[in-house]
Amino acid sequence: MGGKYSSLDPKEIEVPKLHAMLERDGYLKPYETEYRRRYACFLDYVDKISEGEGGLENFTQGYKWFGIHINADNSITCREWAPGATELFLFGDFNQWNKFSHPYKKLDYGKWELHISPNEDGSCVMKHLSEVKLVIRTKSGDLVERLSPWATYVVQPPREEGFVYKQRIYHPPPTQKYIFKHPKPKKPESLRIYECHVDTQTFW
């Protein structure tokens, strides 16, 4: 990578509890240099995230920034991460399925942003359970339709419409919003990881 840490000799990289792991399983000893090299690459990425995203905690809360968010004034802010896209559009029943009337603006680092004003009467353009999709123009010029990876509510389509889930805007009126009946569970002292998928996400 050529970063601050990955440009160093792997022998200079301190990996937490590496020696304990190698003592526990001697078959891993031949790969010690590779463990150190990979940890150096990891440290470089942590630095990049800290510099560009304000730290790991902010980075893990990307759902608060990305996706489709209806603001207090009923305007809508939409953001996506699509570094492989040359153009990005939002369409749905809110704009009569016009694929190109609502283009995103390209930002730095593969980010895209779109702001939609409220209706003249101050109401939100998107109603509760409105259906939306993204249109992405790839580097090869192809147009592909996708759901946002930041979608907060998707539904299974009727069988006759195929198998692709539909993204819907979940924005019920106050009288229909769910009210929690029980207190929020306490935060556990240690991390609980149920499942982890590495390298299963592609970019557009």
Automatic annotation (TrEMBL):
GO CC, alphabetical: cytoplasm
Q: Where is the Glycoside hydrolase family 13 N-terminal domain?
A: 66-151
**Alphabetically, which GO biological process terms does the record hold?**
glycogen biosynthetic process
User: What InterPro entries has UniProt attached to this entry?
Assistant: Glyco_hydro_13_N, Ig-like_fold, Ig_E-set
List the GO molecular function terms. 1,4-alpha-glucan branching enzyme activity; hydrolase activity, hydrolyzing O-glycosyl compounds
Could you name the domain of life of the organism this protein comes from? Eukaryota
Protein's recorded name: Glycoside hydrolase family 13 N-terminal domain-containing protein
Provenance organism: Graphocephala atropunctata
